[in-house]
């Protein structure tokens, strides 16, 4: 259980949603067997709907892992959509490249290896959607560059922002996670009060924040 919502509600929603097939199902099995975190089923469904709703064609992702969410975005955008995704773990990059190849998505996915904070500083262009799913304690470090890269009217999506419920109550905080919890709380305060953003926090999966970048005056 995620501690974000009641277990019976979580189970009911996941049972309602159709099961993945083919490569996506294979990736889910791989993630479970190798303890690789991927987006929860209900979060994947929301990402699909949001991507289609805003007509996104350019996505930036921080935290590729095995490219599960990268390929979700590709599917939602269609063949004329493109995603730039950043990952620093070599083992994850190897598996991500295999999955991207299996999906025949090499032309849609640009996979950049390295530290996201460094890479973000040198990226150019603008993105319709930016998905933060990397190191939880670094979201604040990424924010300034992400806002620079996000187009006005674009959507910043931040995953795991309630972090097993620990962000909402000290009763659940594990001592070794205290620094991450404090940094994530600071991040949430920042995006909720930021003059460029309108933010909604949604208690699904491990917690999701949706931040709309206001149109420039």
UniProtKB/TrEMBL annotation:
Belongs to the class I-like SAM-binding methyltransferase superfamily. Cation-dependent O-methyltransferase family. It holds the Pfam family Methyltransf_3. S-adenosyl-L-methionine binds at residues 39, 69, 87, 115-116, 133. This is tRNA 5-hydroxyuridine methyltransferase. It is an enzyme of class 2 (transferase). It comes from Alkaliphilus hydrothermalis. It catalyses: 5-hydroxyuridine(34) in tRNA + S-adenosyl-L-methionine = 5-methoxyuridine(34) in tRNA + S-adenosyl-L-homocysteine + H(+). Mg(2+) binds at residues 133, 159-160. PANTHER family: CAFFEOYL-COA O-METHYLTRANSFERASE 3-RELATED, O-METHYLTRANSFERASE-RELATED. Homodimer. Its EC number is 2.1.1.-. InterPro entries: Cation-dep_OMT, SAM-dependent_MTases_sf, SAM_O-MeTrfase, TrmR_methyltr. The keyword Magnesium applies. Keywords: Magnesium, Metal-binding, Methyltransferase, S-adenosyl-L-methionine, Transferase, tRNA processing. Catalyzes the methylation of 5-hydroxyuridine (ho5U) to form 5-methoxyuridine (mo5U) at position 34 in tRNAs. Signal peptide: none annotated.
């Amino acid at each position: 259980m995620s501690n974000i919502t009641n277990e019976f509600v979580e189970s009911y929603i996941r049972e309602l949603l159709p099961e993945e097939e083919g490569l996506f199902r294979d990736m889910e099995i791989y993630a479970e067997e190798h303890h690789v975190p991927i987006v929860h089923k209900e979060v994947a469904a929301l990402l699909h709907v949001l991507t289609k709703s805003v007509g996104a064609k350019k996505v930036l992702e921080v935290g590729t892992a095995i490219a599960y969410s990268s390929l979700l975005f590709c599917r939602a955008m269609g063949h004329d959509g493109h995603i730039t995704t950043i990952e620093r773990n070599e083992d994850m990059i190897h598996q991500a490249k295999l999955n991207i190849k299996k999906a025949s998505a090499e032309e849609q996915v640009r996979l950049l290896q390295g530290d996201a904070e460094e890479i973000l500083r040198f990226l150019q262009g603008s993105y319709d959607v930016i998905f933060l799913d990397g190191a939880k304690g670094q979201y604040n470090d990424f924010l300034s560059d992400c806002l620079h890269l996000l187009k006005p009217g674009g959507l910043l999506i931040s995953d795991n922002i309630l972090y097993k419920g620990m962000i909402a109550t000290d009763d659940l905080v594990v001592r070794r996670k205290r620094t991450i919890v404090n940094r994530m709380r600071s991040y949430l305060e920042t995006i909720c009060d930021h003059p460029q953003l309108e933010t909604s926090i949604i208690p699904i999966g491990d917690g999701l924040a949706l931040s709309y970048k206001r149109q420039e005056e």
